[in-house]
Design goal:
alpha+beta, single chain, 8-stranded mixed sheet, Mago nashi protein, 3 helices, rod-shaped
Length: about 200
């Protein structure tokens, strides 16, 4: 009887061991999908061998901005080696005043303004045409040739020569109150023209 009881005990122990092993296997199999999922996620994050990592390209430089010159003529300095034009339409000389000013300016049809002291500007032929038109409209060719019968120590003296449409005329004047209004207007137009070119 003792022998059969011992056999039943051994069989019971072996059955319990098998059940424990089976339970352990089931637990491991139950964890396997989770381990596979973690491994797949790690591969996805790291990338597969041989995969290239995209590097950002440097920004494409934008083309430089270009500016278009305004159609309105602006006074610009003329190079020193530019020869003066022989087609001079205006010569304006002024001297005197308290500071002893002495200037001579010439303007040609191409829009070049020059002084005897070396100043040179480009104002454009259109601007010169408007100046000549304004001077002619003020009555330059109807003026007398001389307004110099006045003694004035600090007054300005003007000599203006205009060549236009086949006409050429020179007017000399001393800037005193006796000057005609038309001549004062012409002097003002010329001085404003020079100041505009000088900027």
């Amino acid at each position: 009887m003792f022998h059969s009881s011992q056999i039943r005990t051994d069989n019971s122990n072996r059955g319990a061991a098998r059940r424990r092993r089976a339970s352990c296997v089931r637990r491991r199999l139950a964890r396997l999908p989770k381990l596979l999922m973690v491994a797949l996620l790690m591969c996805a994050c790291r990338g597969l061998p041989g995969d290239s990592v995209a590097t950002p390209l440097p920004p494409t430089p934008s083309p430089p901005e270009t500016t278009t010159a305004s159609p309105t003529a602006q006074a610009t300095a003329i190079p020193d080696d530019m020869e003066p034009s022989s087609d001079v339409v205006i010569t304006f000389k002024l001297k005197g005043g308290i500071g002893g000013l002495d200037e001579t300016w010439t303007v040609d049809r191409e829009g070049r303004l020059r002084s005897a002291s070396g100043e040179r500007y480009e104002v454009g032929p259109g601007r010169v045409a408007r100046l000549v038109q304004d001077i002619e409209a003020a009555g330059f060719f109807a003026l007398s040739e001389s307004y110099t019968d006045v003694v004035c120590a600090d007054c300005f003296e003007y000599t203006i020569t205009i060549s236009h449409n086949g006409q050429a005329k020179t007017v000399e004047a001393v800037d005193a109150s006796q000057l005609p209004e038309s001549l004062k207007t012409i002097v003002r137009l010329l001085r404003e023209f020079i100041a505009e070119a000088q900027g």
